[in-house]
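Schema walk-through. Below, the input block comes first and the output block second. Nothing else is stored per chain. Lengths vary across the set, and this one has 453 residues.
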Amino acid sequence: MNRYSVIFVLFVVFLLGGCHGGRHKEKPVPDLWQGARQPVWPADTLLTLHLQDDTSLTASVYLPPGYNDTARPPMILLFDPHGNGSLPVKKYRRLARQYGYILAGSNNIRNGMNGTDIERILHLFTGDLFRRFSFDSKRVYAAGFSGGARVATLLALTDPTVRGVAACGGGLPSSGNLPPVRFDLLGFAGEEDFNLPELLQLDVSLQGQPCRHFLVRFAGKHEWPPATVFEDAFYWFAFNAMRDSLLPRQDTFIRAFINKQKEDPSASFLPETLRQEYQWTRIIAFLQGLMDTQGYEKQLSELRASSSFQKAQEDFSTLLLEEKGLEQYYLKNFPVKTLSWWKGKIAGMNRKIAGSQGARHYSYLRVMHYLSLAAYMQTEAALKRHLDAESAKYLALYKLLDPENPDVWFFDAVYNARKNNREAALRSWAKAETLGFSNKSEIRRWPELAGMI
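--- output ---
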């Protein structure tokens, strides 16, 4: 049984790890791959690589300045839930340039694929990259967002070549009987991300696992983290390489992280005691074994024993339970309530968001984002099954929940094209583009749009 065989069994979770956030406009990427392993690479250039064993499959690749056939830079494999590998490669290539990493994003593995196709493409993608590029085989990492995070963690579970994962907005596959987590796992979750509770629980559960782990929280939603936040992944990978004697200790790098920690506003949304706990835990997780962290550990232990911290923690846990109850209540009513009923509920939720602050404010936002995801999935499923009435119903609800989401208007274009309403379809497509829809490979999945866009 090869290292990918378990993917077919476990990957049903990927089908449910959907992402529907806005996308950034991107310029077309030139195909500069020459078929040789050692062409003359333009410095700091994004390449499109056609996989040798199936040229219909592509990867977006960034090679750092100075790359050549004898170099051994570390590599990060990137997985986007929409199969848009160029998005994270472009988003993080400044960091890759600064720290000297190869970035490689799959343009084909995406949410909604069946396990057999995912297994095949993942095997071709990693095999081609490992065969054609010069890299440090002891410093291979993976990163993904949403369903793509589940791809990244699953790859690390089944392939010991992958030493660490940056899992953004998604965690491990939830199927049972997983092997122990032996790779280093750094999670990322925006405070508005509906998957934040899942990632918080995962971080707690990993305390009994043979791995190093931490969850980075930031002021954002269900999305690839901003580059300033994702820089923590480069610190994390490097510090763990130092602890494992794969890199020499670099004091200037350690000091740079400490200085960034002092200036970091990423946990400013937390209550004071929870914010202090987060900051001390982060320093310990990143730097234990590289510097003396006993002072931080002592302060952390005292803080966690305090009544103020325990009360804040209890209040937050109660809030998460209430949040889960709200999600289940609304989800139960998705197929049965009228649009008029939903208008009232959405208006009420928006009033709660406007009238709240702190942890409760973010909790209400997570519920709304969760409902938007549910509307995305219901709309897509109805359109795929050619259920016109259901498509119209869920599309109308999606517009109420998240009118500034480009996916809403892309689906509206599909629906109107199916109804032979060309003008309405073109208007919706134009609005989707204005709001940031740029992954035109999606069009191939909807034949109604062929020849129109």
